[in-house]
Structures are given as C-alpha cells and as structure tokens.
C-alpha cells in the first residue's frame, strides 16, 4: 500500500473511531441525549432520518472503498487539477467536524450560547461542504472503472450528501432549540 493510500486509510480508521467515541461518550455521559438531540424535529420526520442515516452510513463504504482501493494515488487526477491528496484533506474535514458535533451539541443542551450554536452550525456546515467536495471529486476523477463500482460509489456519496447537507446541515438546525 502506497504512502497516500495508507495515510488516508489511517485517517479514516482513526477519524471514524473518534466519531464513534464522541457518540459513545455523549450517550454514556448524558443518557437523555438521544431524545434531547432531536430538539423539535417532528416524529413524522424522524423515520425519514432513520432511513437516511442508515443509507448514508452504508453509502459511506462503497465510495470510500472505491477511493481507497480503485484509485491509484500516483496517477489519480481530479478535474485535471488536483491529486489524490485532495481526498485526504476532505476526509479530514468530514471526520474532524463529525467528531466535534456530539460534544458541541451536548454543550449546547447543557450550556447554550450563541457561540456554541455558531460552533454547532459551523461543524455541520463543514461536514456538508466537505461531503459535496467528495461528490465533486468523485464525479471529476480521471478513473471511473469498473463502471458498476464507480456508479455504486457515486450513489453512496449522494446518499451521504443528502444526510449531511440536507438533513443535518439544513433541516435539523431549524428544529433544534437555540
């Protein structure tokens, strides 16, 4: 495994563990957190969230697998301008911001302030924008073979974008108490 691919894999594993750890710590420290984090999201929308969260989580794997194992770091070009390292930067943003969401949301619930709310919105915005950047990069990468795996990666990324941009970035903040 080459250096950039190895770096991305380590980032994804370490960052993914950080995201999961932030959720576990949040749930253990604040048992009521599951209910409180919904804010005012109506029950009628929650089933859509559950389905979307599951699809986004499942969708993460095909596009990540494609980027890690189907793209050759030394020859990958994105829009004839950017190299494989672009993926490292974007994944770092997604994972760092995602791991900050739970602690910031708990802080917003326990000690609300305008600054904390701005921080929550900022990390959600960063994840959403980085998700769009991942989709853009995937659509503009110079290798799109095998076609069926590439299409699966794009669909997975679209599902991830729907969750992070629309539901998390735009809809959830409307219902969360400020």
Descriptive account of the structure:
The protein is mainly alpha-helical and 178 residues long. The chain is built from six helices and two strands. The longest helix is centred in the C-terminal third of the chain and has 29 residues. The relative contact order is 0.17. The model has no long low-confidence stretch (mean pLDDT 95).
Q: What's a quick, concise take on this entry?
A:
This protein is an all-alpha fold and 178 residues long.
Keywords:
single chain, 178 residues, mainly alpha, two-stranded antiparallel ribbon, 6 helices, 2 strands, elongated
Supply the helix-strand structural class. Answer: mainly alpha
| Beta-strand segment tally | 2
- Describe the biggest sheet? 2 strands, antiparallel
N-end to C-end Cα span: 47 Å
Large-scale geometry: elongated
Give the assembly state of these chains. Answer: single chain
Number of domains: 1
Sequence stretches where pLDDT stays below 50 over 5 or more residues: none
* Helix run count: 6
Mean pLDDT: 95
Q: Taking Cα atoms only, what radius of gyration do you get, to the nearest Å?
A: 17 Å
Helices and strands, in order, run as HHHEEHHH
Describe the secondary-structure layout.
Elements: H1 3-29, H2 33-36, H3 43-69, E1 77-78, E2 82-83, H4 85-110, H5 114-139, H6 147-175
Antiparallel strand pairs: 1-2
Helix pairs in contact: 1-4, 3-6, 4-5, 5-6
């Amino acid at each position: 495994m080459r250096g950039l691919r190895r770096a991305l894999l380590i980032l994804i594993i370490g960052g993914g563990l950080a995201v999961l750890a932030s959720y576990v710590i949040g749930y253990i420290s604040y048992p009521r957190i599951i209910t409180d984090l919904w804010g005012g999201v109506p029950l009628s929308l929650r089933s859509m969230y559950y389905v979307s969260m599951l699809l986004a989580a499942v969708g993460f794997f095909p596009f990540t697998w494609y980027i890690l194992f189907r793209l050759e770091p030394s020859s990958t070009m994105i829009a004839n301008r950017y190299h494989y390292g672009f993926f490292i930067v974007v994944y770092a943003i997604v994972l760092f911001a995602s791991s900050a969401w739970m602690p910031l949301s708990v802080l917003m619930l326990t000690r609300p302030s305008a600054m904390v709310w701005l921080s929550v919105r900022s990390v959600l915005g960063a994840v959403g924008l980085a998700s769009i950047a991942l989709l853009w990069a995937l659509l503009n990468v110079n290798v799109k073979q095998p076609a069926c795996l590439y299409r699966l990666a794009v669909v997975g990324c679209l599902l991830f974008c729907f969750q992070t941009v629309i539901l998390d970035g735009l809809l959830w903040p409307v219902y969360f108490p400020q």
